[in-house]
Amino acid sequence: MPSLAQWVRPRLLTDLRCDPEQVIHQRQWWRLLTAVAVQDGGAVGSCFNLATLAVVAVLACRAWGGPRALVLFACSAALLNGMATASGAGTAGSSGATFALASSIAGLALVRSRGAGRLRAGLPIAIGAVILALGNPHGIAVLTGAALGILTEAASPTPAARNRSSGARPQATLEVL
Questions:
Q1: Proportion of the chain above pLDDT 90, given as a percent
Q2: Fewest beta carbons less than 10 Å away: which of 80, 98, 110, 111?
Q3: Which residues lie across from 18 on neighbouring strands?
């Protein structure tokens, strides 16, 4: 895993990070995806990001099925790193894509649930709006992930067909919340 290998070969961070100069002027668009493979938060930040991703990935695979969870993670990484690049910020790390993947589950639950379940599903999305208002860019990740979750669910076939094709348990998302 590059995130761990970067401690032996620190140049990996420079080689894979999403640097606006490299992405825009050198046309190295692949950096929009490779930036999640390295971490710019030091050893503690790296360990936290990887542990969080491990937990979120399990929950997302239960909710979406493995292939959809992977596509949601990759799309989130590309979108968020694209936004960061457009704003002139260089970035590396998996936290944004992990936040987005986690909140995609909230978006899914928001669409599938009723009554109090909708309130519980909306809470992480509301928290994302608050942290964005406080100036933390992870709020963008939360709102992006929720929107991707809602759109993915809306574009999916009927629930019975979706669950057969993804291998997901029908109520897995609601059990998480």
A1: 64
A2: 111
A3: 91
